[in-house]
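Researcher: I'd like a structural prediction for the single chain below. Treat it as a standalone chain; there are no partners to consider.
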Amino acid sequence: MKAALLQANDPLDSTSLSAPVVSFLLQKAKQRIKLKKWEDLMNQTCRHKGRMFVCNEVDLDGPPKNFTYINDNKFGKGVDVNRVTVGCECDDCISQPIDGCCPGLLKHRRAYNVSRQVKVMPGVPIYECNSMCRCDPDCANRVVQRGIQYDLCIFKTANGRGWGVRTLQMIYKNSFVMEYLGEIITTEEAERRGVVYDKQGVTYLFDLDYVEDIYTIDAAHYGNVSHFVNHSCDPNLLVYNVFVENLDERLPRIALFAKRGIKAGEELTFDYKMTIDPVDAESKKMDTDLSRAGIEGSPIKRIHLECKCGVKNCRKYLF
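Model: Treating it as a single chain, here is the predicted structure.
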């Protein structure tokens, strides 16, 4: 077994290598096998066009433990979901009159252009067509629900920020990149979990406080690739509240769109302490806080931690 692993990963014969080197090569080979299995599992699970890749050239860490890749938010105990019961009758939601169409909920404005790029400012709610609508899946008002469209790589950062995510394809400005997914729980449950996470030094709590602070997304054990996106004080992604299969303002879907053009190979980031002022009467409140392990605090219990994003305008501390 050792010989096979060495042959697959290093041309040198094991007899010419020292014991520490042989041990390292064996661990590295085993790590690559585990990461490839994790990569394959994610791609078998995901329902979106974009493919997931995994790379760790920094250390011997393998896949995260107790983490399940999901395609939709998982609703926890005590979360009341009011599904939509009607949809629009439009054949083409971009060219037809906006009255009576789902985008009409946005005060007679369309959130997307024909290329599915967002046109409204962060803080403005987006209403997409739903499963009750007459329009087909290619409708330009169906964006977030189509899922990730780009190939992305989960990689281990070399500067102590843990795992990160980079795009393997060019992403145009205002394009949808990914949704922040996890288990939706009540704020009471988030308070309880936050105490535990603080002691462990790890938490992925994202408050859904678009209109009122009732629910929180916990992506610690259930989530998608967004689980691994790092913070930056000068991010290339922006947060939007999107409504698809429900119009309950307590339960927006959290969508991340490109703030600018993003080159292939560039790391994806967003501001974990992003506060967006409402830009119309419908958008009463949007105050998004995300906390992460090792480099972030918790929106439930704030911890004063140093920021490691490294940009020129870094705030030095996350919270």
